[in-house]
Structures are given as structure tokens and as C-alpha cells.
Amino acid sequence: MVNYRYLGNSGLKISEITYGNWLTHGSQVENDVATQCVRAALDAGISTFDTADVYANTKAEQVLGDALAGERRESLEIFTKVYWPTGPGGPNDTGLSRKHVMESIDGSLRRLGTDYVDLYQAHRYDTETPLTETMQAFADIVRQGKALYIGVSEWTADQIRAGAALAKDLGFQLISSQPQYSMLWRVIEDEVVPASKEAGLSQIVWSPMAQGVLSGKYLPGEAPPAGSRATDTKGGAESIGRFMDDDVLTRVQGLRPVADELGLSMAQLAVAWVLQNDNVAAALVGASRPEQVAENVKASGVTIPEELMARIDDVLGDVVERDPAMTARNAPSTRVA
């Protein structure tokens, strides 16, 4: 069964393996399979579920809400996000303006079938809306009881500090950051993590398996397995592209002896690795089959000895991306329409 951790400087506990439905619900898998995956997560002790309004253009929220219908609401932590375009893509169907934020939370609650979300997250930083306007909207949503806590996703260290200071002035707190983080993508370590610790946030990390590359199923010099994310034309192939390099894939295969020594699969090693960071509250994992959920949960509670953590660094060497500027470089410089 999964272990639980506090999220940021708050009293909220979440499952350290959190179920996320990006790239799956409403797009890659049928609704009945999605429901089976959610049931498997609940059976494994996962109580925390993460989605976003943009996933499958709002369909993923609806699928998750349907799958959780009938569950005791107080026993769940339901997270969603706002920023990216939804609906028909009108001029105010995107960003973190007060209009879009206030309208989006109501839409998310309706689709999720709940009166409130436990965590409402700014899915990116909006360069075209004053931060004070965004944070005031979040403050009002918290006071209205539509969200219990507020978080951010892929914000830089400076943006986190500024947002946290405004939140404090407005009488609430930011408690989480949701960045990409894995053995191969460590750009948050030098700046985002220290800023988060200072401000009382912890990380809910996405892509701990580097879009599946760290599972070891992609072999250097060979075509991707049929049906894998690297062959998915709906978005999976594009997102995994940066890791599909023979040097990277060769180094990843060198991690297999480490996983064997710990009695873990390669995928479990990848999830366990991110959870060694004391600022990580949870690793987000998705699933296209129920059995994947049960396997991922086995990474919960694993302690990787320091000598094996060092060996992982030696094996991966210079294929690891560590540049903290990548957070800003990968963020939209203007509001996406």
C-alpha cells in the first residue's frame, strides 16, 4: 500500500504515489478502462488524483469525476489546474485572468462532480496578466470554499517567491509546485527546490519515468515497441522525443543492475528515485492498464542507499539535463491561444 506525505507547509496529507490522467483519460484509453485504472488506484491506497481542464479539452476531468462518483469525498484529494486554452479557444478561454480563473473553477467542479477541489493549480505562469490579479482570484476561490489550497506548475524560482509573497499578503498560501522531474530531468534542483523550501511549497512531480524512457522498454538502435508512447501520434511521441536518443537509451539500460539489486523494476526504480528528494511530496503516475497502477505503487516506501544513488549518477553521466534555465525556456512567453 502507498505511503502518505504532507504537502508543503500545510496539514494536508497526500498519497506519495498520485494518480494523474494526462494523456490517458478522454484520449488514449476508453472510459471503462480509465475507470478500472482509477479503481485499481483506490484499491492500492492512492487517495490523491490529479487532472487539468486542458487534458483532452475538459474530457479528462469528466472521466475522472465519473470514475470517482460514489466515493466518500472526504477520503479523496482531488487536484486540477487552470491556464491552457479550453473550449472553443476564444480570447478569454486561456491564461490566468480573473475572468478565466473564476469561470474555469466552476467548469472544473461541474465536470468533476464535486463542490470543491483540494488543490487548484496555476498550470503555467501568465505573462500577460498582473500577478496581483491572478492571486486575488485564487484568494477569492479559497474564501468561497471552491478550493482548499493553491499550487503552481512549472513556475520559476522567482515566480514562486513573488506568488508566495502575494498569497501571504492576501491571507492564503501556496503549498505546491508541479514540475517535470526525473533522473534525466533535474532542472528544478538548483533553484526551484530551494525557493520552494523557503516559501513552504513541496513538489508534486510529473513524468518521473521520463515519459516511459526510464522503464527501460526503449532500446538503443531499435524501433519503439508498437503501442508505446513513442508511437502515439496524439501527443505522446512529441513529448517523449527529447529522450529518444541512443546515448540516453544506452545509459538507461545501464541502470538495470541497480534496479535488480533493489528488487525493483526499472519503472519502480524511477519513481522511487524522485521520492528520495525530501522536497518531493508525490510522484504523478498515469496508467493505460490497471495492472500498471499496482506495479507503480511498489515504489512507495523504498529507500535507495546513498551508494546506489551515486551509482545512478555515474551511469547516467552527462545525459542528465540540469540547467535551471530550462524551466523558463520551456514556458510560454506569451499567453497561448
TrEMBL record:
Coiled-coil ranges (or none): none
Keywords for this protein: NADP, Oxidoreductase
Transmembrane feature ranges: none
Record-annotated NADP-dependent oxidoreductase domain positions: 16-315
Family according to the record: Belongs to the shaker potassium channel beta subunit family.
The protein's name in its UniProt record: Aldo/keto reductase
RNA-binding listed as a keyword: no
CDD domains: Aldo_ket_red_shaker-like (cd19074)
Gene3D superfamilies named in the record: NADP-dependent oxidoreductase domain
A Pfam match: Aldo_ket_red
InterPro entries reported for this sequence: K_chnl_volt-dep_bsu_KCNAB-rel, NAD(P)_OxRdtase_dom_sf, NADP_OxRdtase_dom
